[in-house]
Design goal:
- The structure is a homodimer of 284-residue chains.
- Chain A is an alpha/beta fold and 284 residues long.
- Chain A folds into two domains: 168 residues, NAD(P)-binding Rossmann-like Domain (Rossmann fold); 109 residues, 6-phosphogluconate dehydrogenase C-terminal like domain (6-phosphogluconate dehydrogenase C-terminal fold, Orthogonal Bundle), CATH 1.10.3660.10.
- Chain A contains eleven helices and eight strands.
- The first copy, chain A, has an eight-stranded mixed β-sheet with strand order 3-2-1-4-5-6-7-8, sandwiched between helices.
- In chain A, α1 links the parallel β1 and β2.
- Chain A is globular, with a radius of gyration of 21 Å.
- The interface between A and B is large, with 93 and 93 residues.
């Protein structure tokens, strides 16, 4: 039975997990661990966690969830595995999976680790960003499931099912390659759109009256946390550079069509891309 | 008094205007004109318009709203002005303002035209996309207001105020330059994101299970109508090419930072762009 859950990193993802676990499993005790005492106190006051804890307490854990920036996860995970009992499971929720799987591939407690990535989130961060039901109907990608002890993965998957997630299984290399396209590139696209518009318009503040909901939704991800995203781009460097090269080539081609007055070509580019409607219908 | 309003183009914008006018001004009769008989019949069945009409009927109009693609508007506007009475007003709602103002600058009925751009919309199109209250709290940019007869503009502005719009006045050149950044670039950014991801992933359909709400909102505008957007990019070619050059340069710089392992630089780019939060708060 999972009784004591320790959430390391009580921000958007860790905090939202804590809220849902407390809601769905009233008997469970949720402990919070965070570098920031402010965040820990906030999480306690907001009722996100039941109690504050430290890394030294992890020998009491049935489940540890690692919800911190991916570079910190890679550093911390081996030490956490050293601390926990043979009957505990550590699951991480990071947006890259190759490096974290590699760092523990020869760890004696590799079977006590589950590499996963719940595809859920918002552009906000910190304990105040924690919301209920964030994981309802969301995909949770699990990597190298065969390397995790069956009884431990079963307990964890049951819990995540209760939170509304559906599981998909994938190897870490495929995960990191595809997530670069469907998630990491979207973030860079939004950040650079925000940068471009700010650079042009920052001396004309009221010009933003002209911005409608289209700009707002396209640029939304540019509110995201640099502390979380920098290590993701670092760990997934090769794939992210590939996606950026494709994206820049497509933008350059579109610009050339406009410059050459090939507006039939411009029309066809957009017409073909309208296919995204079917794809997005599939997501919903 | 505005009694007979003729909406040319009963799609997303024209249809939504018709719905709100019928709601706020029950005494007004709303006529619909459209190249597509299907769309006209749909608009009638959906209660978007009161009655079908043709261009020959425009001598009965108190107000004509031109809500068709911007290239068609530029062609049609002079003929409409030729048809209407001295007491009628024609307002267009297009996303570019330089060409339409130029085509009627020497027209004897220039004072019967109001160039405007309500900054509102969704990614959908056609009469079925028409929704109530689309213009609530939205900005309506009016260009060359001094060239429109005062009594006519006053009547129109009263009506648009009733629909929830706030008016802003701007010259056509400034409008087209700034709107390229805050609207046209967002659309190209989304279309090319959609294209890049589709090209990479189209043979692996279930990969889109990995796409979360972040991808969905960033790519949303790639559902937009090519028939509407192609002439916008054509009319605003110089400004759109400028914005694309800036955007591509920023993306290329970001890619170079990653390639050079300058992750402090990557962090700072995102940190600086987080300033978009304050800007978006100002919009809401």
């Amino acid at each position: 039975m999972i009784q004591n859950i320790y959430i390391i990193g009580v921000g958007l993802i860790g905090g939202s997990l804590a809220l849902d676990i407390k809601n769905k499993r009233p008997g469970v005790k949720v402990f919070g661990i965070d570098n920031s005492q402010d965040h820990l106190n906030q999480a306690l006051e907001l009722g996100v966690i039941d109690q504050k804890a430290t890394l030294e307490d992890l020998d009491q854990a049935d489940l540890v969830v690692l919800a911190i920036p991916v570079d910190a996860s890679v550093q911390l995970l081996p030490k956490i595995l050293d601390t926990i009992t043979d009957f505990a499971l550590v699951a991480d929720v990071g947006s890259t999976k190759v490096d974290i799987c590699k760092v523990v591939e020869n760890h004696p407690k590799r079977r006590n680790f589950l590499a996963m990535h719940p595809i859920a989130g918002t552009e906000f961060s910190g304990p105040k960003a924690a919301v209920k039901d964030l994981f309802q109907h969301k995909t949770n990608i699990i990597c190298e499931v065969e390397k995790t002890a069956f009884k431990l993965q079963e307990k964890a998957v049951n819990l995540f099912n209760d939170l509304g997630m559906r599981m998909r299984y994938m190897n870490p290399e495929s995960h990191d390659k595809h997530i670069a396209y469907v998630s990491h590139l979207s973030h860079i696209s939004a950040f650079m759109l925000g940068k471009t518009v700010i650079a042009k318009e920052k001396n004309e503040r009221d010009i933003f009256d002209m911005a409608g909901s289209g700009f707002e939704s396209t640029v939304r991800l540019a509110k995201s946390s640099p502390a979380m995203w920098t290590p993701i781009f670092k760990q997934n460097k090769a794939n992210v550079v590939d996606t950026l090269e494709d994206y820049i080539a497509n933008l350059t081609h579109f610009k050339t069509l406009i410059e050459n007055d090939d507006f039939e070509g411009v029309y066809n580019e957009m017409k073909d891309t309208n296919y995204i409607k079917q794809i997005l219908n599939g997501i919903q």
